[in-house]
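Researcher: Here's the sequence for the chain we discussed earlier.
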Amino acid sequence: MKKLFTFNRIDQPLRISALAISIISHLISILLFSLYYTNLEIGHYFLWQFYAFALASIILSSMLFFMHETGTQIIFIFLRYLLLFLIGYPLGNYIGIELILYSSLIIETSFYLSSPGNIIVQSIIFFLFMLSQGEVSAWQKNIERVSIHDLTAAAVYSLIIIVISIMLKRYSNSCTEKTKRIRHLDSAITQLTDANIGFQSYVKTLEIQTLIEERKRVSREIHDTVGYVLTNIIMMMEAAILLSDEKKLKRPALRSTARDQAQKGLAETRAALRHLRNENIVKPYGINMIEELVSVFQAATGIDIKVEYGNLSGFTNDRIDAIIFRTIQEGMTNAFRHGMATIISINFWITEETLRVSIHDNGIGSKEIVDGIGVAGMRERILGIGGTLDIRNVDDGFKIDVEIPLE
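Model: Thanks. This is the structure I predict for it:
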């Protein structure tokens, strides 16, 4: 029941249009009845009842405008049809007034209920409307039934109204969906811009902090090597200068020791410089690389991303590292941009020397799966190492499955 009649809030202009059409239809019906009732055999008997039923129908239509719960809307729609039946029954073969009110009810049903619920309700009301056009008796008078010609014309007219109203509803939903996507993309651009500015600031701060830390480290190296040695040499040179003539024989020994200290300091300085020159910059790889990618993307977009590494302990080589990195990056980006996903699940598992990776999101999927530049590049990289790539829509979103041989 919920899936058939799930409420989908339509654009306010469409709701206002449905209410306006209903009120205008009622006013036209009242005007036509006021002009025509004298020609009806039971017109004088039915006068005030007609006005009462028409007023009640307008009230129900106005209340329906403010209803947003599907079950309540359906009840009010069938109450409207009941009043329509009570209005049309004594009119007999004069179907014009009844058809005007019926058309407004069909439009309201299309605009207020979502597909396929609106189609189901319209079909039920259509058959009830057609079946009610038989020979009737009111105020002890037999009233002629609607002619086959008029009934056929009414059926065709009704079907046209149904088709047009459903098409308008779908067009409105399409426009609403596109508007949501535009707003989502605008929000994404804003978030990514803010994140990019934040990352730039972070990188700049990190560079300055790294430079400061490196300077501190270099100063410690200089202090521990050159500073210490120079201090010793200065002390020994001062001692040699201050030696008296009686102890001048010790001067050669002090000079020799100072020379040894200078050579030792030079060797330590060179060793420290070689260490600084050859020191490698540590960069993330394997699982740490994935963690950093996911963390940055989650902070930038606000998407809830869950990663399960299963029995994975690490990757095989830099090439697989790069392929997995680009695959996850492309999968998350597409889930955010095109699928409008809010949750992404990434799972790893190794079986029989094969690394299996799945990226599953809860987005809207893709009506037509076409390999764009990003997906084509992803497929080429995976096929280039003998792997496989499967991209498909699933019941609850979109899924990417990757298999990579680890031999």
